[in-house]
Amino acid sequence: MNSLDAGASGPTGENLNAHISQLELEKAGLQKSIRDLESEKSTIVNNLRVTGVAKPSSSPSTSAGSPSKSVPPPTIPSAGTTTTTTKPSISKPPQPSVTINTSPDSAPMEFFAADFTTSSNIVDFPCPLRDDPDPTACKLTCEDKTCSRGVKVCNTYVECTHVVYDGKEREDLTNKVVTLKHELVKEDLSALTTAFSRWSSVMTRAEKPRTYVIISYGGSGSKMLSGWISDLPKSSVVTVKHMHDPNPPNQMRTFNRPLREASHNGDYRDRHIPGGMFSKDTALIPKDEYDNYRYVYIFKDPVEGLVSRYGHGHCVHVGGDCGSESNFPSLDQYATGGKDFFKIGDFFDKWTTPNPSREYPVLCINYHKIWDNVPSVVEALGLPEKYASTFPKRTETVRNNKTGAKEGHNNHSEDVREKLRKIYKSVRDKIFDMPAM
Description:
Elements: H1 3-7, H2 11-47, E1 98-100, H3 113-118, E2 122-124, E3 138-141, H4 148-156, E4 162-165, E5 177-183, H5 190-198, E6 210-215, H6 222-230, E7 237-243, E8 275-276, E9 293-299, H7 302-308, H8 312-317, H9 331-337, H10 344-352, E10 363-366, H11 374-380, H12 401-406, H13 414-423, H14 425-433
Parallel strand pairs: 1-4, 6-7, 6-9, 7-8, 9-10
Antiparallel strand pairs: 2-5, 3-5, 4-5
Helix pairs in contact: 9-13
């Protein structure tokens, strides 16, 4: 019997137990003090608007209407340095802070001309809600002192990591303009290499002419991708099909002849690309020819997808529960109804979930993360590396309160978007968390 065992049943053991209990009480008190200090720190950080302030996390995992990003504090690199930030996992809504120029009043009011804008990976991105005509940036007008609108909108975009104000520190931001920014992230796409290995019998990275089958539920960049590929040389592209079919076929079949050929003029968004639904009774394509095809499913936040493309005809095309055209609701009414009658959730899951019965792979592309990873996207498509330089610049058609008012409806409003986010929370959670491919 050791000394500790011996003392455990005698007076010394009682004293020891009492001492341990006292220590536990002191420990609990210290832990409470630490929690109080952390809470106080969080409150101070949230109220500060200074250069490089962190984008603090809040609780719970993804909000009811807005899936989101658990974001580590962004760093503002010094001139001549670069950052390599790993894209955080999705767990809770970010609270992006307004990043403010701290230059003296006498200095030019430009934000981080040397060490922020030029030398960092933090860049502009376009957005449909922008108030400024600049098509390359997402500039919003603030509605209160702290620009809560800018913070809220940033929370809703997969891309947004910073809200930047070009002005004085602690200035009243009412009616001021802020810019939403994006931190470039080159993703680790090793999982894609693994997928190529697993499907090596029917999918290779060999550069050769292929038929490209682009699938989406609409408003997701599928016309942009289809249009760009269809303009590439015939040495790389046989043809392009543009499909809205929610049901992936288990086997590849030949396609019916399109009613009219693809158009090649003007904006990608206005073009005709042959497609529709997959054939169920045409000839099967031999498996040894599967590598002559690339099935590509491109997806985007369905909220912006519906604001971009909504109507009874489109609902029918994507296999929704649409009812009669005469009774089809406006987007405002649809959002208020709170149900996914377009069945976008089912569409998304069927194309992104592995199916043991499907005999070919599907390359899934996250629209929001394409432009950070263009060379990898081009490689995965089996296209020559040189085509990466021809990939389209990102564009977003402005759709906000003002455009809706001009058209005599409320369909483009932030209120409608918020209602749609509640309907499509599950899909948006997945999109925020999924890699570029």
